Amino acid sequence: MEVLSDHNWVLTVGTFLPLVGVLIMLFIPKADEALSKAVAIGTAAATLAVGVFTMVQFNYDKAGEMQFVAQAEWISVIKSSYFIGLDGISLPLYFLSMVITLLVMIYSWNHVPSPGNAKAFYILMLVLQTGMAGTFIARDLVLFFVFFELVLLPMYFMIGVWGGENRQYASLKFFLYTMFGSALMLVAFLALFFKTGAESFAIPFLIENGGAIAKNTQIWIFAGMFVGFAVKVPMFPFHTWLPDAHTQAPTQGSVILAAILLKLGTYGFVRIAIPILPEAAKEWAPWIGLLAVIGIIYGALGCLAQTDMKRLIAFSSVAHMGYVMLGISTLTSFGMNAAMFGMVAHGLITGMLFFVAGSVKERYHTLEIKRLSGMLVQMPKLGWILGFCAMASLGLPGLAGFWGEFPAILSAYQPAPGLNVTVFRVYMVVAAIGTVLAAGYLLWLYQRTAFGEPTEEFAAGHGHDEDIHDVNKFEWIAWTPLLIAIVVFGVYPQLMFQVLDPAVGVTLKAFGG
Amino acid sequence: MFSASTEAAEVILKSGWFLENAFIIPIIPAVAFFLIIFFGKKMPMKGSEFGIVSMFAALVMSIGAAYQWIQRVNGVSEETYVKPIIRSWTWWQNDGVSLGIGQHIDGLSITILVVVAFISSLVQIYSTEYLHGDRRYTHFFASLTLFSAGMLNMVVAENMIQLILGWELMGLCSFMLIGHWWEEGANSRAALKAFFTTRTGDIGLLVGTSVLFFAANDWTQKTLGVSGFSIRGLSAWALSGDPSSAAITVGAVALFIACIGKSGQFPLHTWLPDAMAGPTPVSSLLHSSTMVVAGVFLVARVYPVFYEGMNIYGNSVNFIVLIGGVTIVIAAALAFVQNDIKKVLAYSTVSQLGYMMMGLGAGAWLPAVFHIFTHAFFKACLFLGAGSISHSASHHSFDMKKDMGGLRKFMPITFSTWIISTLALCGVFPFSGFFSKDEIIDNVGYAGYNFFMIVGLFGAFLTAAYMTRATYLTFFGEPRGAAAGEHHDDEHDAHASHDDHGHDAHGHDAHAHDSHAAHDSHDDHGSHGPRESGLIITVPLILLATLALGSGFLNAPAFGEKWENLKKWVEPRAEVVSVTGIAKPAGAHGETRLAAGSEEPVDDGHSEAADSGSHSKAEAGKDGGHHYSDCGSKTPVGGVCYAPQLKHAPFKWWKAGMSVGIVFLGMILSWLLCVQLYTRKNKKLVGLTERNKALGAGYSFLANKYYLDTLYEKIIVRSIAHPISRGAYWFNQNVLDGIVNGAGTSTRKTAGWVYRNVDQKLVDGAVNGAGTSAENAGGALQPVQSGKVNQYGALLFGAAAIGALVLVIINF
Amino acid sequence: MLLNQFLMLGAVLFCIGVYGVIVRKNAVLVLMSIELILNSVNINLLAFSLRNGTPDGHTFALYVIAVAAAEVGVGLAMVLLMYRNRRSVGLDDLSEMKG
Q1: Structural domain boundaries of chain B?
Q2: Taking the complete model, does pTM exceed 0.95, yes or no?
Q3: CB nearest to B183's CB, from A396, A453, A513
Q4: Comparison of pLDDT for B737 and B504, the residue scoring more
Q5: Which residues on neighbouring strands pair with residue B86, listed in sequence order?
Q6: Domain C3-88 classified CATH 3.40.50.10960?
Q7: Hey, which residues 749-768 in chain B have their CB within 8 Å of chain A?
Q8: Measured between CB atoms, which of B91, B210, B759 is closest to A493?
Q9: A201 within domain boundaries
Q10: Most CB atoms closer than 10 Å: which of A86, A200, B106, B788?
Q11: C-alpha dist (Å) from residue A439 to A344, A393, B186
Q12: B387-443: per-residue pLDDT in tens?
């Protein structure tokens, strides 16, 4: 593969710099929390700086090709190599992971959840960052798998140690679910490896040779990958870990989980499953589409039944990822673009929603929708931010969410050649109905929590006045970039589409557009 | 006139800076919105100055554009298709194809631009007084300004996606503004209902846009070099003979569903009256004159799609006409039983929107657009008048029966502007409504939709009736409640014996109440009786009333062809235009500014060529001197059409006289009825509840036998209007609202059930089941795990021994 | 040949070792019993090595001795720590691993 840039070190540095930070932090005494935090944030900022450098150096005219490619011997016994690269599909997610990590760390400055121990908490986040960034640049299946799994442990500990009351159950459920998926995924990877002649785990090689595998075998291999990725997305009916994990996870965990971790699954579909196994993808597409639209409606219904704000947002993720998967299942450029855009948009918006939910919890010590009311009276700024995010989340044009939603609906009208048009048109209508339900549950949530007068319990002079304050400094620093990004991408989506579109075109080569 | 960059040797179409840069118009308020959000609270006028200045700037630019557009149109002959000024920049891309954002400026968009900018300016000025001291004054102006940005953006939209952007932004602002006083549950519920209902309609917008895009994209890319989202592309495609009838019908119906939601058409109109929970300037701007016409605008904007998709002129009924016609009657009947003045106006708006839709559905494109134009002025004026009343005369009450009456003495300006606007709304010659509404009715009949012409006339009758009733209750009769200086209508006793000649006495009464009301009022206006509002409120009223009176003359076929200016300026001409020049830049998908700039003169040249070479104007139909082209009836050869050939009903005085007569009949009947009901009823009905009034009316009917003529009318009106309107209202409140609520409740219930039973038990149960069984298995083996090293050793060796045994056995 | 006797010796030592591991409660004695087991295996290895005339068995035996030395080293260290912490080397006191 042609190397488009000489800076092939940037990806390695950008990915592993957090681990260097971890090493340094190991030598900081546990008691010195401020120093731990500062070092961690410094590391994340340095990582982000590398990320910005990557963005600057990225050749936008060739966004469809792999750039900053680096390849080195790694485990030659199983013909796996250290093979990384970045194209238009990876770039936004790669960068997003860096941004989110830094913002979450800033937010954590005065929000370390109980039982404290900032050092360990920050170390986990840095490890997470390496895993997430690595997943988005890996060009080798074994490497991908390693990074993919690397993410699991820090998140497990984050939920299990810093989580809510039911944290052990939730963390275990999260871990087992994902491990189960990963196991099947690994089997699928191995089958792929052997079926293509046991020559290489490199994704480009597999894309070239994967199409030659017999169709039935392809379908089975795809099934294994499907389970692995679908659990992570999560698609109906593999989603039940998500509400628990989100509800129990600390705010930071929820944000990272929603913003980045869920995207590992969809990214896997786009990067690995579909280009390598095009025949199987075509066979599976209607079923993926079906599960996606079920997820859209089902997630929305789930939201309507919730009494807990955070759980509601978690369920809304199921619905939103349904749009992403619907876009992917059409196997068209509109759908893929929508899916990729939707992933980033969902990361920004739902991440923000979880931030807000965390801050609400911090102030009111509850997320019971019934007990919350009149947030706009007590904390106007936080209330408006919640409203803004709700609007973005329901897909209002002019904000980022729209560009993940509308093109996905659009694409379902005309799926890739060979797919059943009627079926997908039904999906389109169902998905469009989903937008109304989304408006329903989000506005319903907003009406009950933000409008009206504060409930008796939390009204002024009832002992909660000290806790209930408007958005503070660290929250502003952490949130402003996200809020700006939501508006900027919403107003001028070409910023992202110009990067995504060429890469999507390359990915879909096997489907003839 | 500023010379355009497109000056070429044979330029026949003039352009100008304002036209070329009309896309700036929505950007101005958008910028102002951010300024208000970030700096508004620190400004001396709390941010309202940004809003007002931006709206004035937008107004100036719109008028400039209008002037230059007129120049452009006047420069060519009557039949030449006047090319809109289209510019486009890449907004997003897909599969290497740029999809644009930009402007599509033609007569229609300029008309609406002027209306929106003008009314927004007035309403913002009005609001500085009306909402003076409001707790969220700055937010209010931010939302108003953002609304204007959204609406203006929708109007200049070059393509469907940009249009959706503006469309939904308006929905958002509508939500924020209806729920402006969100502390009260009713307001936030109304806001939610509005957003939710329009959003339901928007399913159609998303689906319709998708359907049309895929149906049209290949053709438009090949022929015009634009995407299937482009409004120009869609228009030309619809008339090209390329679309399959299924695709275009589905697309048109889907889009129209969105219009039903947004423009408050039956059966999705229920949100609009509830939306009156917002501040009155909001009702005036969003929910009468501008936002709610978005649906009508959309139909007018991509009219060829509806023309072909709905088979307009083809049958005696189509979906648009049907919905429009039903809406007119249903809403007008409802307006008759309202006590809240704003609700009367809201139902009236719904009804008038029905006219516009019916007009569009019957091919009366120009009258419908003209009605948007005139309706905006008089309806905004009526709403602002209602606001003026509540602000200065009725203690923020909108209840006509309880808190108004006899106000014409106290509020002469409000009264006279109200009367002018009411006459305009009723369609009395020579007020503006006459020239638009009557044209709609006339053209609907002329196009062969005879039944709907009668519906329109009946609607006009009802309009006259309910507006008379509202006027009577508000400005005539005796002052009641707050209007009489009281704050509680319970104290209302001594006036029972006065008839409608006793206004003077009431005036005194009101003043008498003034003094004693002062101590028990809990409101800053409490110490005043009714009085005229200040200049900030009355000046916008006067301006709007002037336009309500005069704007009709912009297109007055009654005085001959010379007066049909709007037709000349706004209606797109149905000419077959050559596309050879346009097809060239098909490779340059971007439609960048450069391409657009260079394209224009080439295109003009060709349209000139098409002008002379075109085959299609062979028969110049002798119908008011209009030329006929085949656009809309036959597949155009050698070019494309951007607009179908529309029919225009020739103006006939006897028809106009007939409809004005019907209006007067409505007014007179209603007046007499009102006098009976509201002035006389007190004699007999003191202490009777609301429900008994129907009975009581029967009694008063008996008691007042000597008004024989009136009584006949009363019987007829009572037996027809009331059961129908009450029935419709019942249907509205119980069936339609019931369906909405029922759907909501049952969805909630289903959701709860699914969540409890499927999600938590079945799906989760399966997962937990796997875990539990593993746990049980582990539990059974638990004793083995004794922690005793010796036992472990024994187990180890035991296992080894068994293994050895097995080996031995196998080997033997 | 003497193979049978060697194997018999090995078997006896092994049984003594197993008996010790299972029955004795003293950690040191258990360790010694493990040594016995390992050495019984060594005897077997050497016996077969002699019979086959190859050096494989010797090599294995040497490995086993080395490993056993290490194992005893670690084991005794653990016993020592155990004694320090609990003042006892009784294995019955160690039941933290009970599931």
Answers
A1: 316-487+530-573, 653-728
A2: no
A3: A453
A4: B737
A5: B104
A6: no
A7: 750-752, 754-756, 759, 763-764, 767
A8: B91
A9: yes
A10: A86
A11: 20, 9, 19
A12: 888 888 777 778 777 777 778 888 888 889 999 999 999 888 888 888 888 888 888
